Amino acid sequence: MSEGEIVDVREVPSAGSADKQSSHSSLNSSDSCEKPLFQENLEKPEDLQTDKDKAKMSRKANKETDALELMEGHYLVGNQGIYKVQEFLGEGGFGKVAKCTKLGSPEMYAIKIIANVQEGKEEFESMKLIQVLDPDENHLMKMYECFSFQNVICLVYEILEETLEDFLIKNECKATPLTYVRAIAQQMFQALKALKSIGVVHCDIKLDNIMFADKKSLKFKLIDFGLAVETKELPTGTEIQVTRFRAPEVILGLPLDESVDMWALGIVLACVYFGNYPYPSRTEYETIRAMVLCTPEEYTKSTGKELRKKNHRILEVNPQRRITPSQALEHDFITMKHLAGKSKAAYAAGCEGVMGKTPPSEAQVNPSLQSSLPPPSPPPTPSSALPFYTPEIRSV
User: Fold this and answer.
1) pTM of this prediction?
2) 219 is in an annotated binding site
3) Most buried by CB count within 10 Å: which residue of 189, 212, 224, 306?
4) Is Acyltransferase among the key words of this record (predicted)?
């Protein structure tokens, strides 16, 4: 077998193998903030894009190539070994993601097969930017190698579990306990701090680009750096981010920097905590209108009291005043300094277990965790103080 060749060891691939493939659904942003994002409300992602979105993402349109005929049982010959396709984890406009084993090794890998060569090269170049960072310490997806065959690009990544988007859908978009939101926040703040330190902007932070690396220990990783760029290459007017996670300065065509990633992460944390999006996102106008008005009529009773608070920390409209990753890591929500009192000892111990400061107990992290998270001990104070709200609000 020569490098870059697909080899099928079976005589005839099963016609039913395509049924086993799964594609990521996209959460539907509500017309108003009143409609929760349950599974029955899912729609095609293209229905939620503005004209600018469609133009920006047009280069990700499906391309009919030989690569899309890859099936289970095929072999891919890479630079560091031969990989056997076990199953497909998903597919999209870029191509497919295959779960593979390397011959002679029990390790599993996720190979992203990108149909458009230029896109594949761009993602590889983006991954090269972050190779100076420790992927485990900084919660970034690990890439092992890149190779090509039949005019497509294959990127070999570590195998992860499921995305936050899939988790919310399986959990029927129920609100997630604050203890676990804290774990997600802390790890993603560290990821963004690391990216900021080398002058890189992810540009596409959203629910399906944050994955569980290990559900039992609540470890997460930031994935998909296909649109990542150096901060200095973000000129005014750059069209980045899908609408529902788009920072206001992007919508308004203002100068951009790494703070756009913090805004998008704030939307992610709000989605995980509340179970729905804080702003409608059918159009850019609708989104920016909600950001500016923030009146009682704009939001439901269940979420409005938090979203109407002044001076958001992460969801701060002014990027110059928006909290940075380093500042967020020092926030009481993450450090839990406010939980030092004896009256909060039990709750603090549970939080520290989840955050990795002490070995988590069976009660803190359920080893059989699949699609839902176990409830933490009841918080001793109101649950309105996520780190993207003002310090004057009582924190949990």
Assistant:
1) 0.73
2) no
3) 189
4) no
